[in-house]
Specification:
Spermatosis associated 24; 5 strands; two-stranded antiparallel sheet; rod-shaped; 166 residues; 2 helices; single chain; 8% strand; 3-stranded antiparallel β-sheet
Length: 166
């Protein structure tokens, strides 16, 4: 080591001794500072590690909840699809049943009344005329003549639109 400026090499030994002791104290303090910094870094690292472990636990819990909710959602989706399919099937059956009943009713009307073709016109698909009052075309309110599939009948005891005879 170099001798500080202003000190002589062969001077008193006490000055050199004090200088050596001072240098040793400085080196030991620098070593302590270095060790203290390492301890601080390790403490901060340990604190961060604890926080990370807590957050990781929260994350694992949230992932578990997401998995449970995903399974529940999938079950509900399957139940909804099954119910929707059932409703669609039932609607199709009801529609088919309705069509069968309409066909059956139309067949019975045509079988009972050959004059029924006159009401519909000469074409079977032509619409049935509806009066302005909204009555069915087989009903005549002025004369109180009610037409039925078996033929027209005059109701006795009625005079005009619904008044009994005296």
């Amino acid at each position: 080591m170099a001798t500080p400026v202003g000190w002589s090499q062969g001077g008193s030994g006490s000055v050199c001794l004090a200088f050596d002791q001072l240098r040793d104290v400085i080196e030991s303090q620098e070593e302590l500072i270095h060790q203290l910094r390492n301890v601080e870094e390790k403490a901060a690292h340990a604190k961060t590690k604890v926080l990370l472990a807590k957050e990781e636990e929260k994350l694992q819990f949230a992932l578990g909840e997401v998995e449970v909710l995903s399974k529940q959602l999938e079950k509900e989706k399957l139940a909804f699809e099954k119910a929707l399919s059932s409703v669609k099937s039932r609607a199709l059956q009801e529609s088919s049943k309705k069509d069968q009943l309409i066909t059956k009713c139309n067949g019975r009307r045509e079988a009972r009344s050959p004059s029924h073709a006159c009401l519909h016109g000469h074409f079977p698909n032509s619409p049935v005329p509806v009066s302005r009052a909204g009555f069915h075309p087989n009903f005549c309110p002025r004369l109180r003549i009610q037409a039925s599939p078996s033929g027209p009948h005059l109701r006795k005891g009625l005079q005009g639109p619904g008044r009994p005879r005296k």
